[in-house]
Amino acid sequence: MGARDNVGTQAKILQRLKINIHLSCHILQEKLIRISRTVKPTSSREQKRKRFDVSELHDPSAELVTGRASTSSGKGKNSDGEIKFGYSLVKGKANHPMEDYYVSKFTKIDGKELGLFAIYDGHLGERVPAYLQKHLFSNILKEEHFWFDPQRALIAAYEKTDQTILSHSDLGRGGSTAVTAILLNGRHLWVANVGDSRAVLSQGGQAIQMTIDHEPHTERLSIEDKGGFVSNMPGDVPRVNGQLAVSRAFGDKSLKTHLRSDPDVKDSSVDAHTDVLVLASDGLWKVMANQEAIDIARRIKDPLKAAKELTTEALRRDSKDDISCIVVRLR
């Protein structure tokens, strides 16, 4: 076979290859078009769920904000409209995703109306506060002692919930503070907390702190009795083993032998002199006194506007942490 015959043969082979490639691309393109027509578009919310398995922990009846949003707010009221609430959450200036979750709602059980309010300020991830949002109140209400001994039920539910969190490896190594408030028939208030999220009640216009800030320097003896230590480095807050800035928390598996998760519990009757309740994370309380917060919440009658003003004012004062706030107007 001559050189010209070889060149002619190779040219024919190349031409056939080009035709086959063109046909293959055309067929593939048609298949892709058919697939795209049969697949339902995925919403941004669905995409979030696929990216973050922790959303399976979300309770649709509760309110939620995570690191995927920088702000959130809303409001609600009880069945007769006399008690109203508003909430506002704003990402702080710290360089980490927002990890705050909250609950704010009314529900009825056996003819009794319950107002359920909570803030969960997470750290080292959102899985623990997400779990608390879905499970803590339901665990409290499932306690057989709840209706006749709420304090006992709160303590038991907090401890059991923490043990469950520690037993779930998929919840990671992070943790969360918690402040929960349960309003019974609009007449009696039960508040529990671990960590430094706080609840403050207005009685006759005076700010009454319903929680105790669980900080390492105030519970040093308990930490040291458990084999831990409290660091106090210049320019930093006291920390458990040089790591955590609270002495009680849910989760935190690596530090749990030196931490507590039992809550402090306090109750109060709600009478004509009790008009406002404020729950907030430490992003607010680090830059604002209790009385200041109560004064703002009382001055602004709309609880949603009051909650927004509190978080906005905390930002003005250069709060670095995430800021979560719920205002309940009782009168």
UniProtKB/TrEMBL annotation:
Record domain PPM-type phosphatase: where: 84-330
Comp. bias regions, Basic and acidic residues: 52-61
Pfam assignment, any one: PP2C
Enzyme Commission code(s) on record: 3.1.3.16
Superkingdom of the source species: Eukaryota
InterPro entries per the UniProt record, alphabetical: PP2C, PPM-type-like_dom_sf, PPM-type_phosphatase-like_dom
First-level EC class: hydrolase
Record keywords: Hydrolase, Magnesium, Manganese, Metal-binding, Protein phosphatase
Record has Cell membrane as a keyword: no
Annotated region described as Disordered, given as residue ranges: 44-79
One GO molecular-function entry: protein serine/threonine phosphatase activity
CC cofactor: Mg(2+); Mn(2+)
Catalysed reactions listed for this entry: O-phospho-L-threonyl-[protein] + H2O = L-threonyl-[protein] + phosphate; O-phospho-L-seryl-[protein] + H2O = L-seryl-[protein] + phosphate
Family: Belongs to the PP2C family.
Name the UniProt record assigns to this protein: protein-serine/threonine phosphatase
Species this protein is from: Brassica cretica
